[in-house]
Amino acid sequence: HAHQLAAVAVGGSLYTLLTWAMGFLRMGTTGFAAQAAGREDGCALRQILVQGLLLGGLLAAFLLILAIPFSSAALALMQPSAELDTLARSYFEIRLFGLPAALTCYALIGWLLGTQNARGPLAILLTTNLLNVALDLLFVLGLGWGVAGTAWSSVIAEWSGALLGLWLARHALRRYSGRIDWSALRHWLNWRPLLAVNRDIFIRTLALQSVFFLITVQGTRLGDETVAANALLLNGLLLTAHAQIGRASCRERV
After folding, report:
1. Is 41 left (phi over 0), alpha (psi -120 to 50) or beta?
2. Concatenated DSSP letters of 16-78
3. How far is CA 203 from CA 29, 58, 62, 217, in A?
4. What is the DSSP track for 159-180?
5. What pLDDT is stored for residue 249 in this prediction?
6. Using one digit for the tens of pLDDT, what is the confidence trace for 30-77?
7. Could you tell me which of 240, 204, 206, 234 has the C-alpha nearest to residue 220?
């Protein structure tokens, strides 16, 4: 139904704004991991991986504290109908269970790409998305869980992707000898380069996501049908953008 699709769109936009704003965890770790892999420095690779995972965990804890006040303020700005407000809050609150896994996947995907392992991130993304689709069909159409079923399928898929990513990272480290220097993680100088790069990417990503979020805000004010239709249009736009990026990447390799 339109109001259910609208609830998923609104709750998803709130969740996406929080998680995709942390996309620097993926892009920021790739360069440093690539440098360490080029030097065949196993110690640095382990340090970058742990830094990314720790930073993801700290950001997840911070966002979980911020999430409920943020969602209340955002929904007040959107002015949705009472039914849409209830369903959107339910969807968003369930999705928060997968927030640590989502940020963990960001760090792992960036790190794996830096080690010149493109198959690993592909496996993570395929596993997460295909499992999400399969569980959507089971929970929503099969068990009739509605909006909550959509949220739980995403949570399970995110944790499955994170566990797969950890296993792939452990397997990748076998090619590089070395141990992590835990004492180095206590010094600010060892964190500054990663945080400095992440700051710039964060500003760019936040600006981009704010535009999509404002589209959802305006659509919600116009009614359930409008925000539901916008959700379909935005997903189509996102799919097209990914296809264009993949096509451009293939041309560059050729």
Report:
1. beta
2. HHHHHTTTHHHHHHHHHHHHHHHTT-HHHHHHHHHHHHHHHHHHHHHHHHHHHHHHHHHHHHH
3. 16, 19, 18, 21
4. HHHHHHHHHHHHHHHTTS----
5. 45
6. 888 888 888 887 888 888 888 889 888 998 999 999 888 888 888 787
7. 234
3-state secondary structure of 98: helix
**Hey, what amino acid is at 97?**
F
The pTM score is 0.80
DSSP 187: S
The three-class DSSP label of residue 124 is helix
Phi, psi of 16 (to 5 degrees): -65, -40
Cα separation, 158 vs 222, whole angstroms:
32
SS3 category, 79: coil
- The rounded distance, in Å, linking the Cα atoms of 62 and 41 is 32
State residue 66 phi and psi, 5-degree precision.
-80, -20
Distance CA 245, CA 242 (A): 5
Residue 29, Cβ neighbours under 10 Å: how many? Answer: 29
Distance CA 67, CA 207 (A): 19
Tell me how far CA of residue 84 lies from CA of 62, 115, 192, 229, in angstroms.
Answer: 27, 44, 43, 15
Work out the angle between the directed axes of helices 42-78 and 146-173 (0-180°, nearest 10).
170
